[in-house]
Amino acid sequence: MAGARGEATIQAGEREVCILFTNRALAEVETRLKQSIIAVAGGFADGTAGVTELVHLLRAGMQAARREAREGGSVSLDEVFQVLDEAGFTAVTVAVMEAVSAVLSFGTGDQAPNV
Question: What is the pTM assigned to this prediction?
């Protein structure tokens, strides 16, 4: 499927966790955090965003990947924290922000690659 989307795979222990971001997933994060995705992304750049923002992004990305794969059920916070604990803050942040960047840069002619 073409369009504004960013995908990544996170190595969490022995398993790979797929994440997917679309405009819908990013809008869900904005609603939960009550701030724009641009502000959230900027927070990672300037050090004002942290674990809370990352958890919301990771959960949305995992949920969107699950929805696309037609796997039922919601992603629990326990699942999200398990991935974060196994992969580490930095690895998860890099994967999430690269995938988010692909969505935000879509249509600019200078799109970030899907990872």
Answer: 0.88
